[in-house]
Amino acid sequence: MLHTVESALGAAYVRAFNPAGEVTVKLDTATGALDVRSRIVRPDGTVVVEALPSEDFKRMAAQTAKHAVLRHIHDLERDKVLRDVAEHRGELATGVIDRVEGGIAFVDLGRAEGVMPPEEQIPGEVLHPGRNVLVVILETQHNRRQAQVRVSRAARAFVHRLMEAEVPEIKAGTVQIRAIAREPGLRTKVAVSSSEPGLDPVGACVGPKGVRHRAVLSELSNEHVDIVPWSEDPQAFVAAALGPARADRVTIDRVTRTATVLVPRSQLSLAIGRDGQNARLAAKLTGYRIDIKPSEPAEE
Q1: What percent of the chain stands above pLDDT 70?
Q2: What is the pTM of this model?
Q3: Over the stretch 161-189, which tens digit does the pLDDT of each residue have?
Q4: Last-in-domain residue among 59, 86, 113
Q5: Residue 12's domain spans which residues?
Q6: Which of 82, 223, 71, 237 is nearest to 148 (CA)?
Q7: 298 — pLDDT class (breaks 50, 70, 90)
Q8: For labeling, which of 94, 133, 154, 285 is most exposed (least CB within 10 Å)?
Q9: Are 10 and 34 in a shared domain?
Q10: What is the three-state SS of the chain?
């Protein structure tokens, strides 16, 4: 704190009187006396230290010291908030939209301000001031005014934490989320598995009468979410990932990581999806390039 005050006093003295050389200020904390000195390096290399007058500087020094102390305390408080928030990186947080400027939504999170740029928002979602929102904390941001963190509703981690909040089995560890592929605002595919024999991971995520699944959808502005069973067998996993289309046969080439999938001609468009979305998300989910073909030849 003393170093901060002395540095601020030195900078203020230079602005006020523009003396030659490098100015340093020492503050006697017992008496409040100021010792102002200028260090000048001459052309021949010799160093001269001169005492500078401080009487005309005392009134300005008091205000400068006060502002330096308050700014330093503010910086300490901001840094503490950022450290606390950093410990919750990747977790959900509830906030209120404070304002929207240039497409960037600023979220009041209480002790910190969340910054949600357009790429972290769900496309088509209207974020107006006063609206309560759930976000996932990504990372802290440098801002001298206040503690800021980057938050998101478009990240895959947002879906992961939403499902964890809605499905007790995920939080307990008996159901695991193995992979997520997402195109925000449109569609998400989530692969789940179970470590408990007899426990259906997909059924646990859907919930009784679909109540858990609907809760997740409502928070995602009704973005479509497919929950599929994960499998160590890539053929079974690729077939499941292409749901709701039914695959007749899946052939895996592990060298090129390509999956050739035969589907009934009637389900070809369903397997590919609008603009190739279903096949694209299935490929992201499984890590395989997916080549979809009809299982029966076309009619003449």
Answers
A1: 95
A2: 0.71
A3: 999 999 999 989 999 999 999 999 999 99
A4: 86
A5: 2-86
A6: 82
A7: low
A8: 94
A9: yes
A10: CHHHHHHHHHHHHHHHHCCCCEEEEEECCCCCCEEEEEEEECCCCCEEEEEECCHHHHHHHHHHHHHHHHHHHHHHHHHHHHHHHHCCCCCEEEEEEEEEECCEEEEECCCCEEEECHHHCCCCCCCCCCCEEEEEEEEEECCCCCCEEEEECCCHHHHHHHHHHHCHHHHHCCEEEEEEEEECCCEEEEEEEECCCCCCHHHHHHCHHHHHHHHHHHHCCCCEEEEEECCCCHHHHHHHHCCCCCCCEEEEECCCCEEEEEECHHHHHHHHCHHHHHHHHHHHHHCCEEEEEECCCCCC
Kindly state whether residues 140 and 166 are assigned to the same domain. no
Cα maximum dimension of the chain: 103
Environment class of 55 (CB within 10 Å of its CB; exposed 0-12, middle 13-18, buried 19+) = exposed
Is the Cβ–Cβ distance between 114 and 93 less than 8 Å? Answer: yes
Among residues 185, 213, 230, which one ends one of the domains? Answer: 230
Give per-residue pLDDT as tens, 31-73: 888 888 999 888 888 888 888 888 888 778 778 877 777 777 7
